[in-house]
Backbone:
């Protein structure tokens, strides 16, 4: 056919339905192919049986008819077994010849020989031409179907001419019948092909719609599975037909976590959800409220629940309710995060405004201290200077947060020889802080080069060492720095102190900004350390660990930095570690 019907879906424009029908092997094509092959086989068996019965009953029959029928039966059996299902195409080809051509020749030979000498029973075989015509119309193109109809018409007309030549009588009966039969065959060919094309088009559209619907269902399932909000599909009896992982986690019990389907009546603590679902189904309206649920072994959990009806109330089908759950703790945590972000922006603006007046206060206090000799006044100026330095440290902490830029691979940081860098940083820190007796440095046996900004490395190490000094004892080896190789690709820096374990509430928020257990701290030191490590493609974690201190195994707090190795640097390319004094916190 020359027409092409193009379908579109959200998956994109489809190809021509008819061309696809003619070029692809589909389930529908295989089913039609097997149907035609079975029909030909049954027809061949019936022809052989019929002619053999006539021969056995004494009706004179030409034995050539039986031979042709046997040959046709063998041919149909061979074609069913050995020819693979395929469209017949646009024009005459070998497959057409093996199927339609054999049928046409067989039925023409039977029709021509049935009037021969020795046949007392006349059988009209022309209706059998409908089978090959339908085969060509359904499995081939319109051109092939019309060509087959034309061939059948020519064969019938040729047979009528031969009969007329053997016994010339009135010609109209010999030629009117083939003409009417030919017209009928052309009509059958055209109608059959149009119906087959329409069915193939609709089948292809249905297949594409099913594919699009299947993919859409998969996408919906993936979206629902990954939603942070809980989703439950519940009927009016409280039976949960489906639940995403977030909802199962919120419900919390082992039944909800592992069972494919469960009932809200199974746990007494789920009663508020069951009541909300029944109320929504009973009133045919959506509801929204805050509920508190609980389950064995765990405390109450506050949830914000919303219901939506999946089917209108009163339908013959079962009414389902979609229940959306939000953990109030997560909502409050997001609000706290947004509040902290706003406070951070405001703090940065305030820090910029404080910096200049603070510098003026510090300078004026220093000038005033030079002219004062009274010890009491000296003590006051010392207090002013001490607190001014504290304010300056807090301002610097806040401003340094905004200065931390995201990691950019295009910025080539010079490699740092880790043993040398850590030894120099620890040596300078011990000299300035007066903690040489407390500090023990173990640098490992093998040299390792890492790509870490040298100034960032100094700031991270100083922060961690200062943090360790604030929480440790004054005993020797109470602070230990260890550089060790993890494998051929990674190396670690450990800053350990014999400090007591942290409270769980403190450990949970350890790396959050503006959080500190020390009232005199800004709560930005560890946050900046982690940001600087991530800036340099490294990681920082906290853990409890045991070390040998003063010849005893001692448990303490351990901050572990994991870095990626690089090729050892040349002397010229090695990043220099500054030896100038630094601030205690960045």
Residues:
């Amino acid at each position: 056919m020359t027409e092409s019907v193009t379908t579109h879906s959200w998956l994109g424009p489809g190809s021509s339905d008819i061309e696809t029908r003619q070029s692809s092997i589909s389930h529908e094509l295989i089913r039609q192919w097997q149907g035609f092959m079975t029909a030909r086989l049954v027809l061949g068996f019936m022809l052989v049986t019929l002619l053999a019965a006539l021969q056995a009953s004494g009706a004179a029959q030409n034995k050539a008819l039986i031979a042709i029928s046997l040959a046709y039966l063998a041919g149909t059996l061979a074609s069913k077994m050995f020819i693979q299902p395929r469209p017949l195409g646009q024009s005459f080809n070998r497959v057409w010849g093996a199927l339609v051509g054999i049928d046409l020749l067989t039925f023409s030979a039977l029709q021509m020989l049935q009037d021969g000498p020795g046949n007392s029973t006349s059988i009209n075989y022309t209706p059998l031409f409908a089978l090959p015509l339908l085969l060509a119309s359904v499995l081939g193109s319109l051109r092939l179907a019309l060509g087959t109809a034309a061939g059948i018409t020519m064969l019938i007309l040729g047979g009528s001419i031969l009969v007329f030549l053997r016994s010339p009588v009135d010609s109209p009966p010999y030629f009117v019948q083939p003409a009417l039969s030919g017209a009928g065959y052309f009509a059958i060919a055209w109608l059959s092909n149009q119906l087959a094309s329409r069915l193939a088009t609709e089948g292809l559209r249905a297949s594409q719609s099913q594919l699009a619907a299947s993919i859409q269902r998969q996408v919906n399932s993936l979206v629902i599975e990954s939603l942070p909000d809980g989703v439950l599909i519940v009927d009016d009896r409280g039976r949960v037909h489906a639940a995403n992982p977030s909802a199962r986690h919120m419900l919390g019990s082992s039944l909800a976590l592992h069972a494919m389907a469960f009932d809200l009546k199974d746990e007494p603590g789920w009663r508020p959800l069951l009541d909300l679902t029944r109320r929504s189904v009973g009133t045919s309206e959506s509801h929204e409220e805050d509920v508190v649920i609980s389950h064995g072994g765990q405390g109450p959990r506050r949830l914000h629940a919303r219901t939506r009806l999946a089917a209108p109330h009163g339908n013959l089908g079962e009414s389902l309710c979609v229940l959306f759950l939000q953990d109030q703790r997560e909502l409050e945590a997001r609000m706290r995060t947004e509040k902290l972000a706003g406070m951070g922006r405001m703090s940065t603006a305030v820090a910029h405004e404080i910096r200049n007046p603070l510098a003026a206060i510090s300078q004026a206090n220093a000038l005033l201290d030079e002219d004062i000799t009274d010890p009491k006044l000296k003590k006051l100026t010392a207090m002013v200077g001490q607190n001014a330095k504290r304010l300056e440290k807090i301002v610097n902490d806040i401003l340094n947060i905004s200065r931390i830029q995201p990691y950019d691979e295009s910025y080539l940081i010079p490699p740092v020889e880790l043993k040398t860098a850590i030894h120099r940083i620890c040596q300078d820190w011990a000299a300035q802080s007066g903690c040489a007796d407390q500090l023990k440095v173990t640098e490992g046996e093998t040299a390792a080069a890492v790509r870490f900004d040298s100034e960032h490395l100094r700031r991270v190490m100083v922060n961690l060492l200062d943090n360790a000094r604030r929480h440790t004892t004054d005993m020797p080896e109470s602070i230990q720095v260890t550089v060790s190789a993890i494998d051929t690709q990674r190396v670690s820096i450990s800053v350990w102190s014999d400090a007591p374990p942290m409270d769980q509430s403190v450990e949970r928020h350890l790396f959050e900004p503006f959080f500190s257990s020390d009232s005199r701290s800004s709560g930005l030191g560890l946050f900046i350390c982690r940001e600087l490590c991530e800036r340099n493609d490294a990681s920082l974690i906290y853990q409890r660990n045991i070390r040998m201190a003063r010849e005893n195994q001692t448990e303490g707090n351990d901050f572990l930095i994991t870095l990626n190795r690089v090729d050892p640097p040349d002397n010229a390319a090695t990043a220099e570690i500054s030896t100038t004094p630094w601030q205690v916190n960045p």
In short: Residues 338-403 form a domain with the Helix Hairpins fold (CATH 1.10.287). The two ends are 79 Å apart (CA to CA).
